[in-house]
């Protein structure tokens, strides 16, 4: 046995040399890839604290180049750690707060396609840790749930009420498509995913939290492929969540395979259409849960692809499938939920089972029914605005819609504004200064689709909010306006007057939030100095010693004022 000792000693010596943190180890630095869609606060915090000998940083977003993701995939970069910074709409898109000429954005559906196709392994397959700094990026709640019409369809197909209910619950559990599960499928190989189950902190707050975490020893935990409990604890007040990529053994792996057959570009278009036809033979519950993917696949087929013999044959086979059409149209008749009905009508049109005229007739009737409801919510406003993006409902179809009077509540006014009513638009904009938070939310839902059109509208809305009497609703209104980036240099004096005169710390914080989201580079140095002085001299003593948006804004202004003046 002694003859094996030298080999054993050599092996042990080699293991020691390769152990993390051992002096003399020559391990290759890990690559930290960053997707900076919005602010760079989080990326900068990682960059300040991770040692250069152990980590190198690669920014994948190339400003002004629409194909930056394709370039990143072709570059050969292999990411060990990925940091995604940007606002997230909770459904599909990371976006920038800057609404300039070409704001950056990134769709989760795009990442899904790249992951399924295995065409960007350096970003999606090799990564060990992913950090999503955006709201709802790991939200576990289903984005899609089977509507009540599925239950009715299952009963009509011969299932008992209890059997139908059980199947409905299974569908929601397996195919509910929460953001958490979508991200797990996109980054199926990653052992660590970090994101937010609900609202995420603003970039400066996140950056500050990361600074504190790293100063307490955080760098040694980055890239170690183990669940980072200390990082989760650091962000516990804002609900940082953890997940792992989908493993081949779990049920979600089968869901991933189903999803990929619709979006993997390596699969021929004819075969993907065939997959749609096969799905239409299953229960309408499964069809319902895959509606968006089916519709996206069909709408992405251009005329050239549709005219190829095999694709045309398979599309015709679906259009002539009487059994599938009857099941589908019966399910459409069962549907009472507006969102589900819109999707079903769109798919019926794509499959050749109804024409465009009938689709718009049905949509106009559905919207007329909505206007007759006693209560409406944000979802109905979003739906109406989305349907009328191209003003199709403002012509002959729109004349079928019921009209309302000035006695409408804000929700009905917002829905009518979505459908082209100028009177309803003014009523909805006025609700931004409402003392009722629910009315403010309705106005914001509308403005996400139909933004303020000119300086006069922006000034009028801001003036109305600054004149509000109740501090709490005013703070909420200012927070709402901060998302619309209304601040122009000429508005600063009025905001500073409000900051000086308000007795409310919440209003002061809201003013700071507006300024922190604004481009203060447009403001000259004397005016900036005056703003800084006002913030410091008239600040209401906070109830807690924890840093606030006011502190961050003060730091930002000091930094800006200390920087050398431009040419």
Explain this structure.
The strands form 2 sheets. The protein has a 6-stranded mixed beta sheet with strand order 2-1-3-7-8-9, with helices on both faces. Helix content is 54%, strand content 7%. 37% of the residues are buried. It folds into 3 domains: 26-143 and 178-243, Rossmann fold, CATH 3.40.50; 251-366, no CATH class; 469-567. With 567 residues, it is α/β, with parallel strands linked by helices.
Which tags fit this structure?
alpha/beta; Rossmann fold; 3 domains; 3-stranded antiparallel beta sheet; disordered N terminus
Average pLDDT score: 84
CATH topology of the largest domain: Rossmann fold
* Portion in strands: 5-15%
Indicate the structural class: alpha/beta
User: So what's the CATH class of the largest domain?
Assistant: Alpha Beta
For the record, the CATH architecture of the largest domain stands as: 3-Layer(aba) Sandwich
């Amino acid at each position: 046995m002694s003859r094996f000792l030298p080999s054993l000693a050599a092996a042990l010596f080699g293991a020691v040399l390769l152990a993390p943190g051992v002096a003399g180890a020559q391990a290759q630095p890990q690559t930290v890839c960053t997707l900076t869609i919005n602010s760079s606060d989080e990326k900068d915090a990682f960059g300040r604290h991770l040692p250069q000998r152990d980590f190198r940083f690669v920014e994948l977003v190339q400003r002004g180049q629409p194909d930056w993701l394709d370039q990143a995939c072709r570059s050969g970069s292999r990411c060990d750690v990925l940091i995604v910074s940007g606002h997230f709409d909770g459904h599909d898109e990371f976006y920038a707060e800057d609404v300039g000429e070409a704001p950056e954005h990134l769709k989760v559906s795009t990442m899904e396609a790249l992951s399924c196709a295995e065409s960007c392994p350096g970003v999606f397959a090799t990564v060990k840790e992913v950090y999503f700094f955006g709201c709802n990026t790991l939200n576990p709640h289903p984005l899609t749930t089977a509507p009540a019409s599925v239950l009715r369809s299952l009963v009509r197909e011969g299932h008992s009420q209890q059997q139908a209910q059980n199947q409905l619950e299974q569908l929601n559990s397996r195919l509910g498509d929460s953001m958490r599960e979508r991200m797990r499928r996109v980054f199926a190989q990653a052992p660590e995913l970090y994101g937010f189950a609900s609202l995420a902190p603003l970039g400066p707050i996140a950056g500050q939290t990361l600074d504190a975490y790293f100063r307490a020893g955080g760098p040694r935990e980055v890239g170690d492929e183990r669940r980072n409990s200390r990082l989760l604890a650091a962000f516990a007040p804002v609900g940082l969540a953890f997940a792992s990529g989908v493993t081949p053994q779990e049920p979600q792996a089968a869901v991933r395979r189903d999803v990929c057959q619709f979006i993997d570009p390596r699969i021929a278009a004819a075969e993907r259409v065939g997959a749609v036809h096969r799905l239409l033979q299953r229960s309408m519950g499964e069809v319902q849960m895959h509606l968006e993917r089916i519709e996206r696949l069909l709408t992405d087929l251009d005329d050239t692809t549709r005219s190829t013999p095999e694709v045309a044959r398979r599309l015709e086979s679906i259009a002539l499938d009487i059994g599938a059409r009857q099941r589908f149209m019966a399910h459409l008749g069962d549907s009472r939920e507006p969102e589900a009905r819109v999707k079903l009508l769109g798919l019926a049109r794509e499959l050749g089972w109804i024409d465009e005229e009938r689709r718009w007739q049905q949509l106009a009737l559905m919207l007329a029914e909505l206007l007759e409801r006693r209560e409406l919510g944000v979802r109905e406003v979003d739906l109406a605005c989305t349907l009328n993006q191209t003003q199709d409902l403002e012509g002959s179809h729109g004349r079928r819609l019921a009209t309302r009077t000035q006695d409408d509540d804000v929700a009905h006014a917002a829905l009518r504004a979505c459908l082209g009513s100028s009177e309803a638009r003014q009523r909805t904009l006025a609700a931004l200064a409402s003392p009722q938070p629910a009315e403010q939310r309705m106005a914001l839902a509308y403005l996400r689709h139909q933004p303020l059109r000119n300086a006069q509208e922006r000034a009028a809305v801001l003036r109305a909010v600054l004149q509000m009497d109740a501090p709490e609703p005013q703070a909420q209104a200012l927070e709402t306006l901060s998302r619309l980036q209304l601040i122009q240099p000429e508005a600063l004096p009025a905001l500073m007057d409000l900051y000086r005169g308000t007795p409310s710390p919440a209003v002061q914080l809201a003013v700071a939030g507006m300024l922190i989201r604004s481009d203060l580079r447009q403001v000259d140095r004397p005016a900036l100095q005056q703003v800084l002085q006002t913030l410091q001299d008239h600040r209401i003593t906070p109830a807690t010693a924890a840093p606030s948006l006011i502190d961050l804004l003060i730091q930002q202004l000091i930094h800006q004022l200390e920087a050398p003046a431009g040419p």
